[in-house]
């Protein structure tokens, strides 16, 4: 385990919303200008803090959906019914509004071209990404980063979305990406359907003998199920890194 | 001074506020699962619990021997650094005081180590004097693997990443050595009431 972490104090920074855009039917893309943002690695997250007029504060974590090359910070926020923070972010916040955030946080669930640069392309272990729903956020940062960096590390994404209207990422989902739809597909859908299981992983993900570095992000049950399946398929547990998210309404 | 967000307000009950550390929310009946890697599956026949390191007499218990140790029941609030808190969780297991009693501890820190390679560091004072347990039972049932079964550390007065899942032992250290998340910028001690989430908090 690398012990190269930077023990840097994380101060609250003022972030100004520049855009609040629809990213899918249930997810908004919030774009921030952050004063003094120190930069980040694809896969890291931020803590967002909201303070009410009576002094009440709430904090939530969000994966960063934009690559380090983008000077602005993009967060993909799902509007969770009954949530305390997400409805404010997605429905109330408008361009020009400020909030506080701090980060980047986390140094384990990351991949970057710089970290691979010392390894010749043919000796690099490929990167396998497995996403459930809005768990694709950190992977969009990785894919965008890989594309902008012109990085030769092979990267594949297996991405489970409910319906075609829920798919995030647009043209970042290139030929290395496979989307499976779990709640019905349009008539012209040519991709797979159904949940990520052993068969889908065998067909659309790097096999264990390719020695991929595997990243899994999504709702907690999705992550637990996929991780167990990956181990059953023969991927070593040490090659599998997990990130979970979920609002208060998420089944645990 | 925090930036005030107009139109933002509390949406949850305030009845439990005196039990809710700053920046946390009550997750209610849910019990979220968090781990950095896959859930290990260690057969009980191959499981043991170890106290080693700066001790006069290293200790080892098989599963059967661990189950024979004096047991305690605790009902505690737990607080995860990812912001959720859960009130009144019920656990059963063995006090760390019991595990250390015959070891002859000579250091002031411990590193908990686990199946799957996870580690976390704690001052000895945070795991002794009735403040920490190795638990194998949650809510009257054997602890589920995704929640750390067969056994996990329980240090409820610190953020829950200190309550290492799948714990296999405690290594007593002469000095503080950061564990897994502590190496990645999380706070060395992790007191939720002082909101010690990250290094420097």
UniProtKB/TrEMBL annotation, chain A:
<feature type="domain" description="FAD-binding FR-type">
    <location>
        <begin position="10"/>
        <end position="111"/>
    </location>
</feature>
<keyword id="KW-0411">Iron-sulfur</keyword>
<dbReference type="InterPro" id="IPR050415">
    <property type="entry name" value="MRET"/>
</dbReference>
<dbReference type="InterPro" id="IPR039261">
    <property type="entry name" value="FNR_nucleotide-bd"/>
</dbReference>
<dbReference type="InterPro" id="IPR001433">
    <property type="entry name" value="OxRdtase_FAD/NAD-bd"/>
</dbReference>
<dbReference type="Pfam" id="PF00970">
    <property type="entry name" value="FAD_binding_6"/>
</dbReference>
<keyword id="KW-0479">Metal-binding</keyword>
<dbReference type="Pfam" id="PF00175">
    <property type="entry name" value="NAD_binding_1"/>
</dbReference>
<dbReference type="InterPro" id="IPR008333">
    <property type="entry name" value="Cbr1-like_FAD-bd_dom"/>
</dbReference>
<protein>
    <submittedName>
        <fullName>FAD-binding oxidoreductase</fullName>
    </submittedName>
</protein>
<dbReference type="InterPro" id="IPR017927">
    <property type="entry name" value="FAD-bd_FR_type"/>
</dbReference>
<dbReference type="InterPro" id="IPR017938">
    <property type="entry name" value="Riboflavin_synthase-like_b-brl"/>
</dbReference>
<keyword id="KW-0408">Iron</keyword>
<keyword id="KW-0001">2Fe-2S</keyword>
Automatic annotation (TrEMBL), chain B:
<dbReference type="Pfam" id="PF00174">
    <property type="entry name" value="Oxidored_molyb"/>
</dbReference>
<dbReference type="InterPro" id="IPR036374">
    <property type="entry name" value="OxRdtase_Mopterin-bd_sf"/>
</dbReference>
<feature type="region of interest" description="Disordered">
    <location>
        <begin position="1"/>
        <end position="24"/>
    </location>
</feature>
<feature type="domain" description="Oxidoreductase molybdopterin-binding">
    <location>
        <begin position="37"/>
        <end position="181"/>
    </location>
</feature>
<protein>
    <submittedName>
        <fullName>Molybdopterin-dependent oxidoreductase</fullName>
    </submittedName>
</protein>
<dbReference type="InterPro" id="IPR000572">
    <property type="entry name" value="OxRdtase_Mopterin-bd_dom"/>
</dbReference>
